[in-house]
Design a protein that fits this description.
mainly alpha; 2 domains
Length: 137
């Protein structure tokens, strides 16, 4: 049980497991928050609202730019995965954690606010899927 709790507790006062409340209170509070949030979501959002987004196209990007952005996304994805497996196994010296936590989780939302949905252009899974669809034709 202690091993399970050590993964759940992400923030503390001094150390990782230094919480100002007993662990059992933490577990009960986390359970209540999770259940209440899903019950509230079920009652306050009874019908889907995000299935058909209304896109407002300001300009069209040429297809070759989309393909190049997809290739860049696949290349960056491959480099990050390679760095995670074969790179230096210290967090400060490895590219993968720095890219994921800093550039991806912080940079993509900021770029999306400034320029729109930039992840869609560089999404490696979308690029691989489009390439597979193109080769299947």
């Amino acid at each position: 049980m202690t091993d399970l709790l050590s993964g759940l507790i992400a923030h503390g006062i001094v150390g990782r497991e230094d919480l100002p409340v007993p662990k059992i209170v933490f577990l009960y509070a986390a359970t209540v928050v999770l259940v209440v949030s899903f019950v509230a979501l079920a009652f306050l959002w009874p019908r889907p609202r995000l299935e058909a987004p209304e896109d407002r196209v300001l300009f069209r990007v040429p297809r070759v730019v989309g393909v190049l952005c997809g290739l860049v996304g696949v290349a960056i994805f491959a480099i990050v995965v390679w760095a995670g497996f074969a790179g230096v196994q210290t967090t400060q010296a490895n590219l993968a954690p720095i890219f994921i936590y800093v550039l991806f989780w912080v940079g993509i939302p900021v770029l999306s606010v400034l320029f729109g949905d930039v992840f869609r252009a560089f999404n490696p899974w979308r690029a691989i899927g489009r390439a597979a669809g193109w080769t299947a034709k």
